[in-house]
UniProtKB/TrEMBL annotation:
Protein family membership: Belongs to the non-flavoprotein flavin reductase family.
InterPro entries: Flavin_Rdtase-like_dom (IPR002563), GntR_C (IPR011711), NADH-dep_flavin_reductase (IPR050268), Split_barrel_FMN-bd (IPR012349), TF_FadR/GntR_C (IPR008920)
Gene Ontology MF annotations: DNA binding; FMN binding; riboflavin reductase (NADPH) activity
This protein's UniProt keywords: DNA-binding, Oxidoreductase, Transcription, Transcription regulation
SUPFAM superfamilies assigned: FMN-binding split barrel, GntR ligand-binding domain-like
Ion transport among keywords: no
Annotated ranges, domain GntR C-terminal: 248-373
Pfam families with a match to the protein in the record: FCD, Flavin_Reduct
UniProt entry tagged with the keyword DNA-binding: yes
Protein name: FCD domain-containing protein
Segments forming domain Flavin reductase like: 29-171
């Protein structure tokens, strides 16, 4: 039997139907907006948790919930051993928490507010609701195990739920807007519209499967960030990455970071600095050695610097900082040697040490040194590509 048909056998009958490609499947399923949960459990003294959207109520008599966990997950194994789990339904303000538990890591609970329930399960502080279950049955589906749990405790509070739509966390309206912004931004920075050509709004909207007005709003925002240029008649062109634009974008990022350090570092909690330390360790462990490992490194590096800005406790400020990130352009142009040189001196551990010591002047100085180093490398790449990228 071919692999193509192997996935279409049911009850010993070969249905003979083609299998949908994984990238197509992910794209289509991503159009289903869902809530976001963190599944937690305890196995002895160890706590486990992972972000999951595949959660559903199963019955009301008796009250039961089902969750689907990938069998490669350590949380899956802990639930299988302990026979219990808690469903933490996240609020709209807990997008960062969803990202934290979505990553692989040894101690996701460090610095995360939580309590241990009377039934011995970790419940996350600030969650919109929590549902505690004991496993009654399990089933296997593809790469996942389906845990059917009998509900033994449940509670909820008022608030707005966190939504997940096409890889974006937020409330449903903002998730649509964010999906349009991030998708349009990727279109621009990947140069799917070449420099010098007008961006076809209908083509972008069709590719993203979103309304054109959402793409229009995204382009307006990108214009304020200097990533596109608005022309007469409502047309937009991608902005070429030049030394002047590098100075502006990285200068704006530095202004935010050093301002936050000056205002908030001395009052930073130990828990937040521990979080920055953990991200620092992850960045150093993810130094890219190939094109395949570059994406994870870039994401972790951005998360590390965004965590510093998070000291201000402003989601909007952190979002603005993230929006100034343009590594997509460099990813499209850098060769392996460029990236090796761009990693440069050990700025991250030095910056982390200064932050942990709450040394404001040292942290600001190192942040400035790092930005100047990055700008120098970026300008060298621009020069190698004729003065604009």
């Amino acid at each position: 039997m071919t692999n193509e048909h192997a996935g279409n056998v049911r009850y010993g009958i070969d249905l003979g139907l083609p299998v949908v490609e994984e990238n197509v499947f992910r794209n289509v399923v991503g159009h289903f907006a869902s809530g976001v949960t963190v599944i937690t459990t305890a196995d002895g003294d160890d706590l486990f948790g992972t972000t999951v959207s595949a959660v559903s109520s199963l019955s009301s008599d008796p009250p039961m919930m089902l969750i689907c966990l990938n069998r490669s997950s350590v949380t899956h194994d802990a639930v299988a051993r302990s026979g219990r789990y808690a469903i933490n339904i996240l609020s709209a303000a807990q997008g960062d928490l969803a990202r934290t538990f979505a990553r692989k890591g040894d101690d996701k609970f460090a610095g995360v507010g939580h309590m241990i329930s009377a039934r011995g399960l970790p419940l996350l502080a600030g969650a919109l609701a929590s549902i505690e279950c004991v496993v009654d049955e399990t089933a296997v589906g593809g790469t996942h195990t389906i845990f059917l749990g009998r509900v033994v405790a449940a509670e909820a509070q008022d608030g707005e739920p966190l939504a997940y739509y096409r890889g974006t966390f937020g409330n449903l309206e903002s998730a649509l807007e964010t999906a349009a912004y991030e998708g349009t931004r990727e279109w621009v920075l990947h140069r799917r519209t070449p420099l010098g050509e007008t961006i076809d709004v209908s083509a972008v909207a069709s590719s993203l499967r979103l309304e054109q007005k959402l793409v229009d709003h995204a382009l307006l925002r990108l214009a304020t960030e200097s990533l596109v240029e608005k022309r007469d008649g409502g047309h937009y062109l991608p902005t070429a990455m030049t030394p002047a634009l590098v100075d502006k974008l990285y200068g704006d990022r530095l202004t935010i970071a050093t301002g936050v350090i000056e205002r908030y570092l001395t009052s930073a909690s130990d828990e937040h600095l521990d979080r920055i330390r953990r991200l620092s360790d992850q960045v150093l462990a993810a130094i890219p050695t190939s094109a395949e490992t570059l994406e994870q490194f870039l994401e972790l590096n951005l998360d590390y610097h965004a965590a510093i800005v998070d000291l201000a406790g402003s989601r909007k400020l952190t979002a603005s900082f993230r929006a100034l990130n343009v590594t997509t352009v460099w990813r499209e142009t850098y060769e392996a040697g460029d990236w090796e040189r761009q990693l440069g001196p050990t700025f991250v551990p030095r910056l982390t040490a200064a932050l942990e010591q709450r040394d404001v002047s040292a942290a600001q100085r190192i942040a400035c040194e790092q930005v100047e180093f990055v700008k120098e490398g970026a300008k060298a790449v621009i020069a190698a590509h004729g003065g604009a990228v």
